[in-house]
Amino acid sequence: MDVTATPMETLLKRFQSFKPPTLKGIENSVECEGWLEDMEMLFDSLDYEDDIRVRFIGHQLHDVAKCWWIKTKRALENREKKRVAEFANLKQGNLNIEEYVAKFSTLLDFAPHIAGSEEAKADQFINGLNPDVFTLVNSGRPNNFADALDRAKGAEAGLIK
Is the pTM value of this prediction over 0.85? Predict the structure, then answer.
């Protein structure tokens, strides 16, 4: 065992020791499907998480398939950055509370640093509320998301009457 190898290098060496199949991108659909099934079976047997699978799959792509992968990966990374920014700047605007919380919850997946903390999630949610709802919800400052959502629904209901 190489004591200087990083954990990622060790996982990659283990993966490569099984001589996984490669894909050039010129294969027919049946061959591509077979390749994908073989890769999934190998990843499953190695018990690799999705993020490791995504990192290692590129090592098995060549020629046309590698070009496609690089472009697709770049596009997905750019889309994710846009979603992170969209979440950071999310405001209630014309949305009612139900619509706002639906959008907030969808974009929350792109902000795991906030999703992991009830207080941070509540703060982000509250800070995106319209000023009149914000004022009503922020008095007594809820410290978790569920409480903030309940207060926002109550505040909106009170303002609509």
Answer: no
Kindly give the interhelix angle for 7-17 and 50-57, rounded to the nearest 10 degrees. 70
**Structure tokens of 106?**
């969808």
* Domains of the chain by residue range: 7-84, 90-160
Strand, coil or helix: what is 22? coil
Kindly report, residue by residue over 43-59, the tens digit of the pLDDT. 999 999 998 998 999 99
User: In this structure, what token pair is assigned to residue 25?
Assistant: 């991108």
Residues contacting residue 114 through CB under 8 Å, at least 6 positions apart: 87, 108, 120, 121, 124
Q: Report pLDDT digits (tens) over 55-93.
A: 999 999 999 999 999 998 899 888 999 999 999 999 999
